[in-house]
Amino acid sequence: MDMPRNVFKQMLGERRLQVGLFVGLASAYSMEILATAGFDWLLIDGEHAPNNPASVLAQLQAAAPYPVNLVVRPVNHDAALIKQYLDIGAQTLLVPMVESVSEAAALVRAIRYPPHGMRGVGTSLARAARWSGVEDYAAHANEEVCLIVQIESKQGLANLDAILMVEGVDGIFIGPADLAASMGYIGQPGHQEVKVAIEDALTRIAATSKAAGVFVTEPRMAQHYRGYGASFIAVGGDTLLLRNAAVTLASSFQDNPATL
């Protein structure tokens, strides 16, 4: 059996635009719907959504038949949890709240097999290796695993240039909401000072071998940040899409009872 290729990582390296959606409903059924919607990538969120390895596995399986790239965001930097996500088949991880070189380097070690890392070898139990069905999986897995670190604080921005030098980090994703809070503008990710900080960060990232990413829900701002070098952009979340559509539908009848 051939080694599964990480198309998302390849496209990051080519700086090709990839538009994605955050997925927080923790449902394999809704994941399959989203996998058919036309996004380039979907992020299964384990930081703010009620996900765990079992629910992430179900969503990876639900999306597997469709041509969409999947990214998993763990709740923290725990190497044991990262190992589980990799073994169930996640090839790309986006790790939140990275603020230093030491944290970034530790994450690189967590996703790699020895001698370049500390990921435990258990291919006979791992879906990623197709239960030892992939020939020489452990010898080639490091090449296909992709690490994106999320910068979302003033400290992370202060250490950005150093983090960009860490070998094994494939991309940097800017989180405007937490960055705004860290800068004293909680609830204002569109504040001018936050916007300027994001523009500067994207420019610095794009000038290196790393890919630059950002979360933004307005098409105009997505295009704006694209101009500063962002090549993978998350443009919303499934929970907000569902709520907004539901509120709009309910309001359309509440405001116009004569339509019933």
Write the layout of secondary structure elements.
Elements lengths: L6 H7 L4 E6 L4 H8 L5 E5 L7 H11 L5 E5 L5 H9 L4 E4 L5 H11 L25 H8 L1 E6 L2 H5 L1 H4 L7 E4 L1 H7 L9 H15 L4 E5 L3 H8 L3 E8 H17 L6
Parallel strand pairs: 1-2, 1-8, 2-3, 4-5, 5-6, 6-7, 7-8
Helix pairs in contact: 2-3
Task: Tell me what you see in this structure.
There is one protein chain. By secondary structure, the chain is α/β, with parallel strands linked by helices. It contains 12 helices and 8 strands. Strand 1, helix 2 and strand 2 form a beta-alpha-beta unit. Helix 2 packs parallel to helix 3. The longest helix has 17 residues.
In short:
This protein has helices at 7-13, 28-35, 53-63, 79-87, 101-111, 137-144, 154-158, 160-163, 176-182, 192-206, 219-226, 238-254, and strands spanning 18-23, 41-45, 69-73, 92-95, 146-151, 171-174, 211-215, 230-237.
Choose one word for the global shape.
globular
Mean pLDDT: 96
Gyration radius, to the nearest Å? 19 Å
CATH topology: TIM Barrel
Largest sheet: 8 strands, parallel
Q: Main sheet: which strands, in order across?
A: 3-2-1-8-7-6-5-4
Looking at CATH, the homologous superfamily is: Phosphoenolpyruvate-binding domains
How many extended strands? 8
The residue fraction in helices comes out at: 40-55%
Task: Count the domains.
Answer: 1
How far the N terminus sits from the C terminus, by CA atoms, comes to 58 Å
- Specify the number of helices: 12
**Class, according to the CATH hierarchy?**
Alpha Beta
Topology as a string of helices (H) and strands (E): HEHEHEHEHHEHHEHHEHEH
At CATH level 2, the architecture is Alpha-Beta Barrel
- Low-pLDDT residue spans: none
